[in-house]
Request: fold
Amino acid sequence: MEVSLLVPTYNEAASIGALATAARAVLAGIEAEMLVLDDGSPDGTADAADRAAPGFCRAIRRTGPRGLSHAVIEGFGLARGDCVVVMDADLSHPPELLPRLLAPLQAGEADLAVASRYVPGGSTPGWPLRRRVTSRVACWLARPFTPVKDATSGYFACRLDVVREVDFDPRGFKIGLEVFVKGRWKRVVEVPYAFQDRRTGESKLGARVMFHYIEQLAALVPRRRTPR
Ligand SMILES: Nc1nc2c(ncn2[C@@H]2O[C@H](COP(=O)(O)OP(=O)(O)OP(=O)(O)O)[C@@H](O)[C@H]2O)c(=O)[nH]1
Ligand SMILES: [Mg+2]
Reply:
């Protein structure tokens, strides 16, 4: 198995080095690369990524349409591994979980593994009530479309053929949801983890994101699952 980590970034110079170093250490023994899909971050994220872990991590200085989902979809095309992992750069997605995400793929037990806050053992420590409710509602709204409990997760691993040549909608922020609904997976597992709030850098999420999420769900309506 060869693994490509795909990390979309905008202004994550403060954390990208730590992520690259930690991921390389955790994946020692596995053939792996890390692609940092950067949208011209003015804080020098791309240079920091190239310096952090040479031979393992490199920056892709994107010129195509900007945005998180566009970046990840471009990564699907560039990945040289037969498995890809998508994760955020801000250390919210613990790299220590990588072996547990990849194990079911390696064992042939699943072709999609989702890091999940919403299966037993998963959690969102420190979140205020409002954020907990919003996130739960967002996942609940996705239930007609996917069996994945943490449908808004941005941390997942899959075999590359699950996502290659699939017609993903790059408009929304939630590329995970697109993969969980449209990806060509047969067996999925959810691996519990504790979401870590970002400690540095700035969130790119605002009210706009909720609106785009509803739009993204609306576009998925023809893909509703058959009720059981
Ligand atoms: N390439 C690219 N990456 C982006 C863009 N917007 C956000 N990202 C990255 O996508 C990941 C998720 O964005 P965040 O701002 O952390 O969103 P979030 O985790 O939902 O919000 P926080 O809880 O504030 O961290 C991070 O690695 C960002 O740097 C973008 O326009 N282009
Ligand atoms: Mg984040």
Remarks:
- The chain has one domain: 2-223.
- Residues 2-223 form a domain with the Spore Coat Polysaccharide Biosynthesis Protein SpsA; Chain A fold (CATH 3.90.550.10).
- The first helix runs from residue 13 to 26.
- The CA atoms of residues 70 and 170 lie 5 Å apart.
